[in-house]
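FAQ: What does a multi-protein file look like?

Like this. Sequence, then tokens, then the next protein.
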Amino acid sequence: MNHTVILRKWCGKVATERAAEYARYMTETGGEDLQMLPGNLGYQITTRDLGDGTTEITALSWWTDMEAIKEFVGDEPERAHYYTVDEIYLIDPPEFVEHHTVMSGDITLRHSR
């Protein structure tokens, strides 16, 4: 049986001193929304300090298919989906996201205590 997985990737930029705050905000809004949606397989939020006072924030989410993504963002899934407060944090918010078909891979997250 072949299972297709779609990776949705969004990258934005924020001031470095607000990166942790924005990542927390993203988790509390979009992350919580994603967890309740049929067809969403999970998400991650990553940061990368660009060394110039800005930090790149990337939101990765995995989906069963494009129809599930459309249920979340509407009929134009290639357009970025924003919440009202996003504009307070983001520097030049991107208009579009990327979608990738996952061909293979494996990840196991282990948390140490």
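And here is the next protein:
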Amino acid sequence: MSGGRVSVIIASMNLKRFFLLAIPGGLVLLVAASLLVPSIRERITYRLDEWSIRLQYALKPPEKQVFLPQTTPDANAQAALTPTPTAEPSATPTHPPELPTPTPTLTATPLPPQASVNGVPYVDQKGLWNYCAPANLTMALKFWGWTGERTDVGQWVKPFEKDKNVMPYELADYVTSQTNLGVVYRSGGSLELLKRFISAGFPVLIEKGAYLHDLTGKISWMGHYAVVDGYDDATGLFNTQDSYLEPNLKVEYSALEHNWRAFNFVYLIIYPREREAEVLALLGDSADEVKALQGAAQLASEEIFASEGVDLFFAWYNRGTSLVGLQDFAGAAAAYDEAFKVYAALPEKDRPWRMVWYQTGPYFAYYYAGRYTDVINLATQTLDAASEPYLEESYYWRGLARIAVGDQPGAVEDLRKSLEYHPQFAPSLAALTDLGVSP
């Protein structure tokens, strides 16, 4: 072989070696450059999160976990702060409650068989993490002329990007503190109430359960907001604005009622302040918050005797939630105990295992009933079941319960963690101040 041929072969081998060494470095540089592009970075981060969550849920399926309350107050624990819990639980229903004999009233004006509120602007939640609540509130606000955007709401109600849930009271607080509009937040709504407000020109914001694809690839139960702005008795369909699925989504009356039950039929009415008298008149007895809670508790009690399966779980849970609102904490704790018994008997696929993410009434009930160990155990299970435990309320309540049982270091750690996931979360700041500890 001639020397020139050998030189060519050696040069070729060196060139291949150069490319083999250079390509990995080039790929690293390409990936690094790609991460500087926000849209690409978000897609890569989303996929990594998705794979991590799928692995964690595969190793420890959250639907397999069951909470078993101990049902008794903790001995030798410090007394809970106000409000004072009730000494005895309210009567747990053992038969369908007897309703009072109705008194004659003026016949209400019949509702039209069809009505719609035109002009609700559609706002989706896509492109931002868990933006259901900001998107839906933005729709309701924009209808009344508010000029902000969904990110304005989001930065206020969920300052931590991956906050897993925004409570209805947080949406109501935003309306009252950040806009010139009024808001009513109540439980115990009904299909008739939705129709009444829609026919009067008011869209209604509700929170409900929904079975959607989650990051594990499964269809599972989770909380979801929607704006209801139309109905048609002839078809039996409500018109809704669904920030996750699509605008003008039609939902059967029975399906909406079923899904709404999971959240104690909660609703928010946003309105111009000059129309407050009209809103209160449309609310009827529910204009009084206490009467609304009493009505919701009675409805839940009635549904306990007419339900089974997951609906029975929701009925007991709703009774507990309404009794918490009425500060009957012992009665609420007894209702939640029954709810968790029903939950444990449900098929795993039917268990709404994210429930305490959205509705934290059991923490209130068990804490003010002196059942601090139940608070700690429920919060720990709730946090452990979440792939990313971004639930400031669970950390807050576990912190309070740890204070009550004398674990101040654990309490401080929990309260600070809650502030990490919700900066300036007022209850946690107040608890740390009471302990004489800095955030």
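Q: Is there any per-entry metadata?
A: Some entries carry free-text notes. For the entry above: The beta strands are 114-116, 181-186, 204-213, 219-232, 237-241, 249-252, 267-272.
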